[in-house]
Amino acid sequence: MTHFIDIKGVHHAYKTKHGPLPVLDGLDVAVPKGEFCAVVGPSGCGKSTLTKLISGLMRPDRGAVILDGQEVTSPRKTVGMAFQNPVMLEWRTILQNVMLPLEIVAPGMKTAEAEARARHLLEMVGLKGFEHKKPSELSGGMRQRASLCRAIVHKPDVLIMDEPFGALDNFTREDLWQTMRDLRAAEPFTCVLITHDLRESVFLGDQVIVLSGRPARTQFVLNVDLPADRTIDILYEPKAVDMLHLLRDQIRIAQGRDGEMH
Ligand SMILES: Nc1ncnc2c1ncn2[C@@H]1O[C@H](COP(=O)(O)OP(=O)(O)O)[C@@H](O)[C@H]1O
Ligand SMILES: [Mg+2]
User: Fold this and answer.
1) How many whole angstroms separate alpha carbon 48 and alpha carbon 144?
2) So what's the pLDDT on residue 186?
3) What is the pLDDT of residues 130-142, one digit of tens each?
């Protein structure tokens, strides 16, 4: 099978004043087109580094990052990004913030068309009526919804999310998972989601990749064999609960504490 994202044998070390800090050490990630890959691993193991490699902000020391059959060698416009703290421009309305990537990636697009696209997405995530608010007038969850719209407004072929829901309370976070599921059904994209929430990884992922402690390698890959139209309730069913236990065990191994629990 050909993969839309193919990360093969990636090694990377940061240069620091104390010498090289190896961060990735044999990373393999393969994501078919349109699939959702969740990545979990101990804090500081190299997850954010992985997002920088996929978006082309950094190049690995060794190994290859291939997107759609082409090696990534420079920053890619066709990538959408969402982070934990969405940076919104306060002097622009929510609608204008969501339209921003189109101004950069598709400068020839008519304003009316760009606006219609942004309005459509805002309506899909439940923000109809908030188009003309300023970012500071929205709650954290609403701002994150708007930031998801902004991340996909230009129809990126890859959406990279680095702990996007990490700062939200549990119920808001679950609402956003469902929004994400619906967006994905309506707007096809290939997604890499970094998270430290195992339930989130199982709810949203087609596969969950567990990274080892730093320097990170691909330690374990879980195929999430659950229906695409899953609801939060599925997380309480035995199949999902088994997956969560399995992932918990893998995280324990990644943290180097596998002996401790027995
Ligand atoms: N630009 C950098 N220069 C040096 N060290 C870095 C740099 N960026 C990250 N690191 C270090 O690399 C390791 C992995 O970082 P990161 O990818 O952000 O981890 P994670 O997102 O999994 O928490 C951490 O120890 C971090 O301190
Ligand atoms: Mg990080």
Assistant:
1) 19
2) 92
3) 999 999 999 999 9
